Fold this sequence. Notes:
Blueprint: H1 6-15, E1 37-41, E2 44-47, E3 52-55, H2 70-81, H3 91-103, E4 109-113, H4 116-131, E5 135-139, E6 152-153, E7 163-164, H5 171-174, E8 177-180, H6 185-195, E9 199-204, H7 220-230, E10 234-238, H8 250-255, E11 261-264, E12 275-279, H9 281-284, H10 303-315, H11 340-361, E13 367-371, E14 374-378, H12 387-391, H13 395-407, E15 410-411, E16 420-421, H14 428-445
Parallel strand pairs: 3-15, 5-8, 5-9, 9-10, 10-11
Antiparallel strand pairs: 1-2, 2-3, 4-12, 6-7, 11-12, 13-14, 14-16
Helix pairs in contact: 2-10, 3-10, 6-7, 11-14, 13-14
This protein binds 4'-deoxy-4'-aminopyridoxal-5'-phosphate (PMP).
Amino acid sequence: xxxxxxxxxxxxxxxxxxxxxxxxxxxxxxxxxxxxxxxxxxxxxxxxxxxxxxxxxxxxxxxxxxxxxxxxxxxxxxxxxxxxxxxxxxxxxxxxxxxxxxxxxxxxxxxxxxxxxxxxxxxxxxxxxxxxxxxxxxxxxxxxxxxxxxxxxxxxxxxxxxxxxxxxxxxxxxxxxxxxxxxxxxxxxxxxxxxxxxxxxxxxxxxxxxxxxxxxxxxxxxxxxxxxxxxxxxxxxxxxxxxxxxxxxxxxxxxxxxxxxxxxxxxxxxxxxxxxxxxxxxxxxxxxxxxxxxxxxxxxxxxxxxxxxxxxxxxxxxxxxxxxxxxxxxxxxxxxxxxxxxxxxxxxxxxxxxxxxxxxxxxxxxxxxxxxxxxxxxxxxxxxxxxxxxxxxxxxxxxxxxxxxxxxxxxxxxxxxxxxxxxxxxxxxxxxxxxxxxxxxxxxxx
Length: 446
Ligand code: PMP
C-alpha cells in the first residue's frame, strides 16, 4: 500500500540506494512503501499526499518536544541570523557543555560530534587509548551506530568471537568485539574472568531500545558497573536514545548508576545533528589537543545544532548551575513544562494500558515493555527480556498491525525491533485516537 507519493519513491530509488538514507525507513520489515513526509507540527506529521498521522517515531527519539516547538524554532532562527558555521569555537558550545555537565551524572567534560555513531566510535577509541587494550564487549541486540567494531552479530554463548554482521567489516576487527546476552550478568562475569585483560570497555544501552524496548532486569546495570570496575574495564553507557528521555539526567539518573563514559545524541541536538561523549576530566583530557587520542570534526558543535539542543534542554528544565541563567531566544516561551517527565510518564502509561486492553479485547497476545516514554508492543505471549525473546516475536503480525495503524492515521516505527517515542506534544486526545485505531488494528493483525 502507498502512503504518499509513489512518484517520490520511484524518483528516490533511482538516485539513492533503496530510496532511503537509513535502511529502516524503507519499510522492508513491515511491507509496503515508505511514507514520504512533507511537514510536521506538534504530535503530527503530514505525508506528501496530504494525509496526516499521529507520530510515534519522533525522528527516532530527538523530538521529545514534538515537531516545530516554537522555542526551538526561535532558537534556530536566532542562530541563523548570526551565521551557522565557523569551524571555530563559539559560546554556544560552552553553554551546552555546561548544561550537560550540570545534569548528566559522571560527566565532567564533554566533546561534541555530529551523530550517535560518531559518539560511540570515538568513546571506544578513547577507551582503547586509555586502557591500552583492544577488545570490546557489546551486548546482543544493542545498537550503537554503524561503526565497524559495533556491527557485529550477536553470537551465542560467552566470549563468542565476533562474526562480521556486514560485508566490509574486517574479520580481524570484528574478532575484537565479544558479545554477551542482555541481562546476563553471569555471562559478563565469565567473559571478564577469561578475557578481562584484553577488554578496554563494555558498551551497553542502559535501556535497550534497539531490539524494541527491553528494560534492564534487576541488578543488571549494577552488575555491569561492578564487574567492569573490578577488571579495570571502562563502562560506556550509550545514552544516545535514553539521554534526556528516561529522565533529564538520562538512565544513569533514573537507575542510579555511574558510567566511565557516556554517549549522547538525539535529544541533545533537539533534532539537528549533534551528539557527544563525556566523562570524568581525567579520561576526557586524554583527547587531543590535551592528550594523544585523536578525534575531530569540521561541523562539530555547529551553532544551529547547539542552539536547538540548548533550547530543548532548557524547555525540559535544565539549568547550567553556578547561578548562571540560560538565554531565552526572542519569541520562545519563558519556560517549558512544570513537570515534563511526569507528563511523559502519564501520557505513556495511558497509551500502554490502553494498548494492552485493546490487544486483550481482540485476543491478540502481546507483551508491552515500557520505560518512561519509550515502549514496544511485542507480538508474543512470553516476557521479552533479551534479544532471543525479541527475535522470537511474530514480526508478520507486527507488520499487519503497523499497516493497519498507518491506514487509520497512526505512524508507528516500522519494525518490531524499535521503540515508540511519546513526546510532550502528545495530548490525551492523541492517545484516545491512537487507541481507537488500535482496537480495530489488533483485530486486523490476526
Ligand atoms: N546508540 C544508540 C543507543 C542509538 O539508538 C543510535 C541510533 N538509533 C545510535 C547509537 C547511533 O546514532 P546515529 O544514528 O545518530 O548515528
